[in-house]
Fold each of these.
Amino acid sequence: MTKKISIIGAGMTGATTAHWLAEREIADLVLVDIMEGMPQGKALDLAEAMPIINKDVKVVGTNSYADTKGSDIVIITAGLPRKPGMSRDDLLTANAEIVSKAAVETLKYSPDAYYIVLTNPLDTMAYLTLKKTGLPRNRVVGQAGVLDSTRMRAFVAMETGVSVENISCYVLGGHGDEMVPLTRHSNIAGVPLRDYLPADRLEAIVQRTRKGGGEIVNLLKTGSAFYAPAAACAQMAEAILKDKKLIVPAAAYMQGEYGLNDIYFGVPVMLGANGVEKIIEYNLDDDEKAELEKSAAAVKDTHEALKSLVNM
Ligand code: APR
C-alpha cells in the first residue's frame, strides 16, 4: 500500500477502526497505544486475518510514535470511554491531556497528515487538536455526525423495514444529548421522513438518536459503542484518501458558518483529498436554528472548560 493511516489508541474503537479499514484495503495501518504488547498483539492478529479476506494490508502495532512517520491520516481514539451515568463532558479532564499528546507527537512525524478525532467529548477534542497542532481547519475533522446519522438511519430502518440504502438522515450539532436530528431534510427514497412516519414514531426516533450513545453505554456497562463509531471513522478516512467529495455531517471548525465562530460543531461537510473541503449551509427554519443554537451553547461551554484546563 502506498498510503498509511495511524490510529492512536488501540482499544475498542481504535482496533475496530483498523478492522473496518483493513477490509477496505486502502492503506497500511499502524496501531499505537500506551499499553505494552496490546497494540502489537492486536495488529498481529489482524495481519493474520488478511490472507482469509485476501487483503494486502500491513498492520503494525507499537508503543512508539516514531512508527507513525509519514502517515497520510491520523485517527485519534486514545482516551477513556464513558461508564453508565457519565456524560461525554465528564471525560474532559482525563482525555484532554491524552489527546494533546497524541496530536503533538503524531504531527512531529507526519507534518502532512489529516486528522480525524473520535475521542470524547468529541467536538472539544477536535478543537483541542486544531489548537495544539496549529493546522488549518481543513486538516482536522471530528467524527460524530456520521455516527449520529447512521444511528438514526438504523432506527428508521428498524421502524419501517426499508433498506438502509434508501434511508438518508442528517444529524447536526454537537455530539451530545442536544444534537439536532434534521427530520425535514431526512428522507426515505426521497420521501421526507415527516411524510412517511407518524409524528409520535418520528419523535421517538429523534429521542433515541439523541441518546443513542448512552443506550449502548448502559447495555455494555464497561465501555461505550465501538462498531458504529469505528465504521464512521473508516468511511471518513476513505473519503479523504480517495478524494470522494463525500458530504457527511461531521465536526468542523466554524468561521462564521451557521452564525458560529471559534467552535467545533457538527455540520454537513464535503470530505475529499484536502480534508474538509467545504462546509455546506442548509436553509434552516426557525425551530431548527433554535435547536442548533442550544446545542452550540452546550459545546461552547465545554470549549470554555477546556480553555481553563489547558494552555492553548
Ligand atoms: N496514548 C495512546 N493510547 C492511550 C493513551 C495515550 N496517552 N491513553 C490511553 N490510551 C489508550 C488506552 O490504553 C486504551 O487502549 O486508549 C485506548 C482507549 O480504548 P478503550 O478504553 O477501549 O476506549 P474506546 O471504547 O476505544 O473509546 C476511546 O473514543 O468513542 C470515544 O468516548 C470514547 O473517548 C473514548 C474514546
Amino acid sequence: MRLFKFPVRRTDNPEEGCLQFIEAERHVPFPVKRVYCSTGVSAGCLRGKHAHRALEQALICVHGAISVTLDTVADRTTCILSDPATGLYVGPMTWHTMTWIKDDSVLLVLASDYYDEADYIRDYDEFLRLARRTT
Ligand code: T46
C-alpha cells in the first residue's frame, strides 16, 4: 500500500483550521489530467468494485472516513482514509472497493488521465484472468 503525505499549513489560531495542498508530479508521481469527487454518499455504501487497465489515481478523503480495499491478486489490503493530507495510490490492475464509514464523507480523486470507460474492468472474473496473465 502506497500512501502520499501532503503538506499542511496552519496559522497560530486553531480556529482558522488548516490548509492542505497537492502539486501534480511533486506530491503525486503522475501528471494530473482529471479531478473528481464523490459526494452525498450514505454510510455503508460501496462504490468502486472495478480495476483500471492503465489509470493511476490518488484517493483522498477530504471529509469523514472511507475504507478502501485494494486487491492486486497477489495481495489484498484495507486502509481507512480520514485525513485530507493523506492520499492512497491506486495503480493499474488493482481491484478497488470503497466503503463509506460516515455519512457524507467526501472522496476526492486525482487521476492521471481523462475519463475513458474502456479503461475500466468491471467484471471481477475478467480482472482475475487479466491480472494473472500479467503477473
Ligand atoms: C474510481 C473510483 C475511485 C464520468 O462520466 N466521468 C468521470 O470522470 C468519472 C469518474 C465517472 N463518470 C461516470 C461513469 C459512471 O456513469 O460517472 C458514473 C459513476 O461512475 P462509477 O460508477 O465508476 O463511480 P465509482 O464511485 O464506482 O468509481 C469512481 C471512478 O469512476 C473510478 O474511476 O477509480 O471512483
